[in-house]
Every structure is written in structure tokens, then in C-alpha cells.
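User: Second chain of the day. Same drill as before.
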Amino acid sequence: MNKGTIIKSLIFKTVERFSVKGLGFVISILLARMLSPEVFGQIALITVVINLSQSIIEGGLGTALVQNKDVDDRDYSTVFYICMVLSVVIAALVFAGAPLLANYYKSPEMLLPLRVYIFSVFFSSYDSILMARMQREMRFKQIMYCSLTATCVSGALAVALAFAGAGIWTLVVYYFSHTLVNCIAMFAAVRWFPRLTFSVARAKVLYGFGWKMLASSLLCSLYYDLRSLIIGKQFSTEALGYYDRGNQIPFVISSALDSSVQSVMFPVLAKAQDDKGVLRGILHRSLSLSALIVIPAMVGLSAVADTFIRLLLTEKWLPSVVFMEVLCIGHAASALTAPNLVAIKAMGRSDVYMKLEFVRRVLMLLILAITVFAFDFVIAMAYSFALSAWIDAIVCAIPSGLLLGYGVREQFKAVAKTILASVLMGMAVWAVGLLAMPLLLKLVIQIATGVIVYIILCRLMKIESFLYILDHMKQMKKG
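Assistant: Same format as last time:
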């Protein structure tokens, strides 16, 4: 795969993430202004069930389809039938068990929405196969168009329902319709039908990689979703709504920035999985570029959290400010965590990935357990997440050191200047926030200050990844 193809794919993936997440960001702001925190808390609990269901159904097979060197139509068909059978079983179980969840959280309003939403797993399963096919073929431009179409349609439906006072159904329709429309758009682009063929041998090969990814995915979902389940039960769905809103914005931004690099790098790394020297170089570049973008974005967002929420979400969401300030710092660690995980998956080391996931989640669950038993206030949940996220970044770097000779010391050395520049920039942005001025003007000045200060610091510190981007931009102008 030539450099031009990689660069074009990266550009399309970046545009897709920013445009889709940006549009989704605007829609989420509109919905937050019209819906109550309790509604967002209820949908957060429902989403826990949907996420776990999707993880079980897909079973890491989508990742296996991208990672495996030799994949044909028989493999896609085999995965399709496995996913459909599991979708029927899981949907039936959730449909029957929905009253238990509604009664446990004393929210009868959740019953019917959960029973309707669970049927989205049929479309998300099919969509994961189509996505794997398009990723293997580096068709990121078409993925961008599909995602944009789904976001526009689902967003328009959700805003209309919010105006009509549909409550929790607004968010159910929003997420369900996004999955459905994206699946239809993907199908229109790929035109793939499953064949009447099923290979037990190929299923074993794919599951040889996929089941370990499934175990890792379930551990990951359990950790993140358990936090929501605890907050919803120990405190209230309203408190969960505030926490979820404070978490969603940094999560959306950090994942959009980070996944634009990682989604392209995974198939690239997978094709170079036998050359450790090349893998080490790609991992270094991926990690340093992710850090250059994600860390300052999260530090900056933490610094403007109060202004941001007062202006865009209104004062009814002010309890979310402290959550956003703390959780942004935790999400900044994804710039270091994600590249290491992608590299391990790309090498086909699902055994290492599963063991790593087990260690990571045991540590994180231990921190979470200590938090739950030692502290009886919800903000402690945010602080424990931030702490565990940075411990996680250290743990995830260890296998890269063993497999590629690029471990904790080398990685933190590569991003040390970026972290320092981000902290100094955040202090400058926070200081501007102390000035008395209209909220819109303050937010604009804070953002402008952050961008200017960060660029100046990157130049003064001669941050390697920043200079790399400048050099590449100059070459593109000449070419």
C-alpha cells in the first residue's frame, strides 16, 4: 500500500470523523437543551444493555475480518449467519428480561423503549460486516458519505420528536435510526449479499482471533458500563444524566480525533504485521500524532467547560461542569492507549490483547470498587476514571515494549513535550475564563488563545510531530 493511498484514506477518515461527530455534537446540544437530565440517564442505562448485546453478537469477528490476511466471500457469509443467529437469541432474552431492569432502577418508562431498541442489533451486526469489508478495501470516502447520511437523517428525526415532546423516545429513535440508515447506506455502497454457504473451518479460524477480542470487548464494556449502572442505582438517573453529559462531550471529541488516525492505521499495520521495524515506526508516528491533537484538545475543553456548558447547554446542566473538567483529563490518555491496542490487534496477537485486557480491567475495577466503598459522592466516580485511564496508558505500553521495543519510557519521552505544552496552554485558557465578559465572546477568546498559545509552544519546543506535519504540508504545496 503506497503512501498516497494512506494519506488520502487518513484525510477522508479525518473529515468523516470531524463532520459526523461535529454534526452529532450540534444535534446533542439541541437535544440537551430540550430534554431533561433524567431522560439522558435512562437512555444511558438502556445503552448499557445494547452495547453488551452488540459485543456478544459481533464477538470480535468484524475485527478478525479486517485483521486476517486471507478473507473471501465465504468468510463474510459465515460471520453473517453467526451474527444473525446470536441476534435472535440475544434480542429474545433482552425482550423477556426488560421488566427486570425497569423494576430494578424503578423506571417503568424504560421498559418499552428497551424492547424496541434491542432490535437494532440485527442492523448493527450486518453493518459491522459491511464496515469490515469497506475498511479492508480502504473505502473511507464512501464510509464518510454513509455516516453523514445516517447522522443527518437520524438527527432531523430526533430534533422533530424533541420539539413534539417525545421524551425518551427522542433518543431511542435517534440511535436506532442512525444504525438503520447507516446500514442501508453501507449496503447501497457495497451491494453485498450473504451467500448460502457456511464454513465451520473458517468460523474456527476467525473465532481463534475473534473470541479473544470478544472477551476483551466484554471486559471493556463491563468496566465502562458498570460505572453507569452504579451511578444510576446508588444515586439517581438524574445524577447519571449529569455524569453522562459531562462524559459524552469529551468522549465524542477525543474518539473523533483519535479514531481518524487509528481506523486508517489498523489495516496499514495489519499489512505490515511481519516487519517489527516498520510496525515500531508506524506506532511511534501514530502515537505522537494522536497525542499532538487529542491531549491539547482535552486539556483545552477542560479549561473552557464552565463557559461551554453555560453557553451551549444552559444553566440547567451546570452540575455537569465538574464532571467534564475531570473526565477530559481522563480521556486525554486515549491518545496513548489506542495506538498500542491497535498495534497489538494488527499483529494478530489476540492472545496478548486478551491478557492485557484482563489486567487492565482488573486494575480499573479495583480502583472503581475502592471508590464505591470509600466515597459516597458521584464526583469521586469521575476522579477514579481519570486516575485509572492514565494508569491504563502505562499498562498498555508494556506489551509494545516487549513485542516491538517501544515501551513506556520511549512512549512518554515521545509525548512529554506535547503534554507540557498542553498544560501550559490550558493554564492560559483558564486564566482568560476568569475575565468578566459575555459568554460567547469569552468562549471565542478562550479557544483562540488556546490555539495560538499551543502553536507557539510547539514551535518553541520543536515538537517532532508538529514539525512533521508542517514539513508534510509544505511538500503537499510544492507537489
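The chain is about 85% helix and 0% strand.

User: Great, on to the next one.
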